[in-house]
Amino acid sequence: xxxxxxxxxxxxxxxxxxxxxxxxxxxxxxxxxxxxxxxxxxxxxxxxxxxxxxxxxxxxxxxxxxxxxxxxxxxxxxxxxxxxxxxxxxxxxxxxxxxxxxxxxxxxxxxxxxxxxxxxxxxxxxxxxxxxxxxxxxxxxxxxxxxxxxxxxxxxxxxxxxxxxxxxxxxxxxxxxxxxxxxxxxxxxxxxxxxxxxxxxx
Length: 202
Description:
By secondary structure, this protein is of the alpha+beta class. The protein has one domain. The protein is 28% helix and 22% strand. It contains 8 helices and 10 strands. β9 (169-172), α8 (175-185) and β10 form a beta-alpha-beta unit. The longest helix has 11 residues, at 175-185. This is DarT domain-containing protein.
């Protein structure tokens, strides 16, 4: 079973992702001293650098690149509303779309969780035959998620890096941002399809 997954990042990070040829985990990016426009909660990112992984390559959650099993994630809602660490809104946030099989073929150390990976009681699973246990259609892709916020935040995580060539599509909120992304992609060898998908946003 292969499932579509989505990683959100700010457009300001795209040039570095293309030049590095991959998405780095937070831990690796810090180790390399790379500049990054953070859009998430800094305290959660710090906590994930210390939360252990018991499957895949082990280590800490912060050593893995995170993906959601849907666009329009809970974190994007937080970004849309604004929070202490980022007030820039969602307009220039990109959805980098791939799938579990494509990423796993280039990175053998992957796993997924049934809920938000940062929670103590999240199950860490590296048996991908169990992906069917996630209720992607009725819960994870649901537009209104207040009753199952944790389940909607189930994650797919890849150790240390995800190769740029595994990104198949880039979803954006507006044609203006699509034009900006296409301009940045001009010099890239790998050019994912850029799609204007306002329904992926709040």
